[in-house]
Write a structure and sequence with these properties.
Blueprint (H helix, E strand, L loop, with lengths): L1 E5 L11 H15 L4 E6 L13 E5 L7 H18 L4 E4 L12 E4 L4 H4 L6 H17 L2 E4 L2 H11 L6 E3 L13 H11 L5 E5 L8 H15 L4 E5 L6 H9 L7 E4 L4 H9 L3 E4 L8 H8 L4 E4 L4 H5 L4 E3 L4 H13 L1 H15 L4 H16 L1
Parallel strand pairs: 1-2, 1-4, 2-3, 4-5, 5-6, 6-7, 8-9, 8-11, 9-10, 11-12, 12-13
Helix pairs in contact: 1-14, 7-12, 10-13
């Protein structure tokens, strides 16, 4: 069997989101199923570290698909040509798009439908493309995979897709996220926060991450507790980051906010493992990998109500209304003042986090691919 994979998010300079998902699942799948041939389709030059096994044939099909016109060209012209040339039996696309111009069976991974629920958080051109094409993609794909029951339910409700067409393939955090030593904690705080404890947010600076409400919550926390606690934000500058950065310039507690850009994994493990708590008040997530990473590192977590987090983290985290900065602040104060609560959340988080692994994700995704091949 020849299986073609959309690997355009395996970027040499950085991995996040879709890229991590593709990297971790197919690194396992290609090695476990050496009886099959895999065609990795890139839209730009690729790193050799992404060619995990001898049964992979890398193909560059440019130009880089960076905006709606090129997305349509890439998926509906370039992809069918590659599938035909290499006689692919199936096409797997893990970024929520598929090709409308091929008859080859397709397995499509849809992580969430954030563009429907928060349309102002997408560029207008992107939003028009998503709204027009998503129902076509969902109809065209033979099978659909998604990362939580929360997202599966959303897809069914929004697009009336048959539940039997959608498989849940829970995501995961990397095994490298583990508790760090007291020495590393001390060195990390010395390096970034002048030896002060810090709340942490991990994720791109993007409107969906709800960072303005996090700043407001941090202000309430600082005002009420008179603490020297810092707030650290780790992640790349994404769409509309300029507005956030402008507001930060006049933020009262600007000196207590530490902003790091995209950070390589070994250092990110140290930063997560050294945090006082992770605060992740995202407006909508299909899964929420940073929450799981913090739990693996024995770091307590505050995250959002009414999202996939309640399905994933269960009772091992504190939940706050993402629309209420006062509620977020109240949860930050609870964790700060209650050591017994911290310990309880850490213990529960350790147990829950063991339910998820990339091995399990890869197995679940492979079952969905097999269903596509039937």
């Amino acid at each position: 069997m020849t299986i073609a994979i959309n690997t355009r998010f395996l970027l040499t300079d950085y991995l996040e989101g879709y890229g991590y998902f593709i990297f971790e699942t197919f690194r396992r799948i290609v090695k476990t199923h050496k009886e099959h041939q895999f065609i990795f389709i890139f839209d730009r030059p690729y790193g050799l570290r992404f060619i995990f096994s001898e049964n992979i044939t890398p193909v560059i099909a440019g130009p880089a698909a960076r905006h709606p016109l090129l997305w349509k060209y890439w998926y509906d012209v370039k992809i069918p040509a590659v599938l035909k040339k290499y006689k692919a039996d199936i096409f797997v696309s893990a970024d929520g798009y598929c090709s409308l111009k091929t008859k080859i069976p397709q397995c499509m991974v849809v992580h969430d439908l954030a563009f429907l629920h928060y349309p102002t958080h997408s560029k207008k051109s992107h939003l028009r493309y998503f709204k027009k094409q998503m129902p076509r993609f969902l109809e065209k794909a033979k099978t659909i995979a998604t990362v939580s029951e929360f997202s599966k339910k959303d897809i069914i409700e929004q697009y009336k897709i048959s539940p039997g067409k959608i498989d849940v393939v829970y995501s995961a955090a990397k095994e490298i996220f583990k508790p760090v030593s007291e020495k590393i904690k001390q060195e990390t705080k010395n390096r970034y926060t002048d030896d002060k404890e810090y709340f942490l947010h991990v994720g791109a600076i993007h409107p969906r991450k709800n960072l303005l409400n996090l700043l407001k919550a941090f202000s309430v926390f600082k005002k009420r507790l008179k603490s020297n606690m810092k707030l650290m934000l780790v992640g790349r500058l994404a769409w509309k980051y300029e507005s956030f950065m402008d507001k930060l310039k006049s933020y009262k507690h600007r000196e207590d906010v530490v902003i790091l850009g995209y950070t390589d994994e070994p250092e990110l493990v140290n930063i997560v493992g050294s945090a006082y708590a992770l605060v992740y008040p995202s407006l909508l997530e299909g899964f929420g990998v940073p929450v799981l990473a913090a739990m693996q590192c024995k770091v307590p977590v505050i995250t959002s109500l009414n999202s996939s987090m309640q399905e994933i983290a269960k009772d091992s985290v504190l939940y706050a209304d993402p629309g209420s900065h006062d509620d977020i602040a109240e949860k930050m104060m609870r964790i700060y003042k209650d050591e017994n609560l911290q310990k309880e959340l850490i213990e529960k988080g350790q147990k829950i986090s063991k339910e998820y692994s990339w091995d399990r994700t890869a197995e679940l995704l492979w079952k969905c691919i097999e269903k596509t091949m039937e």
